[in-house]
Amino acid sequence: MSPLERLFALEQFGIKLGLDNIRAILAALDHPERAWRSVHIAGTNGKGSVVAMVERGLRAAGLKTGRYTSPHLDVIEERVAINGEAVERPTFTAATEVVFAAVDEATRTGTLTAVPTFFEVSTAVAFEIFRQARVDVAIVEVGLGGRFDATNVLTPEITAITSIALDHERHLGTTLSQIAFEKAGIAKPDTPLVVGRLPGEAARRIATVAAAVSAPIIDAHGTTTDRIYPPLKLALPGRHQLENAAVAVAVLEAWSARVSFVPTSAIVEGLTDCRWPARLEWLRPAGGGELLIDAAHNPAGAAALATYLQDTNLAPIPIVLAVMEDKDLTGMVKPLLPVASAFVATTVPHPRARTAESLAAALRVLAPTLPIEIEPEPEAAVARALARSQRAVAAGSIYLIGPLRARLIAGGARSG
């Protein structure tokens, strides 16, 4: 079995929160996470966008950067980037082999007592790649929650929480306060914690956790700065990116104050020249038409997508939708109802995916006045949506958007 085959075989073990496994693996690797500085970013939505902005800003300031995000869109090596570029397959494979050798040794000596998860091994692979590449700083996105996420073994220079909303309730809790508590678990003693615009109960819970570990809070929307920024256009579209940009600026300014100087021009470059695919990204398929793809996978993400469609006067518009079984379908569909002219229900080959038929049945209840079509194959679903209109949307799950984007681009679609 190849290293990558062995890695993907771990997906059967699903999600398991806790730090014992990752600590044992990293110890067996002689702690690659101690070889570089880090910024650690959590949040329900927006954390990937903030990672992209912060990485670009620190790179513009002259630092060699690593970036770790999840899940990947199409191929696993997209999770790990050096200076903004995903690593090559041989690099990822070689590091995976190194990590599994450490896993086997830790298992033999008894320091690792349980089979590690896919995410735990992937995280160790990223950290090992960053050490081998000799990055100055890695910007690391939390996978799920924060307190017991495998990335929470870092001793970061800056932490951030972008937003708090209901998502992954089975793992994180059913209230905003409970979810905030889990995400605030990334707070570290004497380490600035940047927070975005948060609901009151979430903000209060995070403040309590931060105070308990003596982590100073920086309010991204309430802190004054002596820097003067020129008028600028964000690289990432959507009104919600203004919120993310404020968090990114606060993180970069905190890094400048705490670690090494970041010129204002570098911060501006981080906001205006970053890339984050599949987030309100327009594709022009070879067969004609325009498709907006967006990885909206929870109610807050769907609301941001709807706001963008309203702000740009694109509604009503056909929407291709695929959703995981464990997601709040009603909460996701509700904000989309005013902007949808029709839904095309599709699905993806994932064990947690709703079938197209099941999704369509639910949509007929939620949207009784709208046309609902069923097309299990995503590319065919896009074709049906574009047959209705010159423009269409595909959203609902990153497991839909990632492979669909890759296939469309391979077929000649242009981005932008």
- CATH class of the largest domain, named Alpha Beta
> What's the CATH H-level superfamily name of the largest domain?
Mur-like, catalytic domain
Based on the coordinates given, report the CATH architecture of the largest domain. 3-Layer(aba) Sandwich
The H/E string reads: HHEHEEEHHEEHHEHEHHEEHEHEHEHEHE
What does this structure look like?
This protein is α/β, with parallel strands linked by helices. The chain contains 15 helices and 15 strands. The protein has helices spanning 3-9, 20-28, 47-60, 89-109, 118-133, 169-172, 176-183, 200-212, 240-258, 264-272, 299-311, 329-336, 356-366, 378-388, 398-410; strands spanning 37-42, 65-68, 80-82, 85-86, 137-141, 158-161, 193-195, 217-219, 281-284, 290-293, 317-321, 340-345, 372-374, 391-395, 414-415. The protein starts with a helix and ends with a strand.
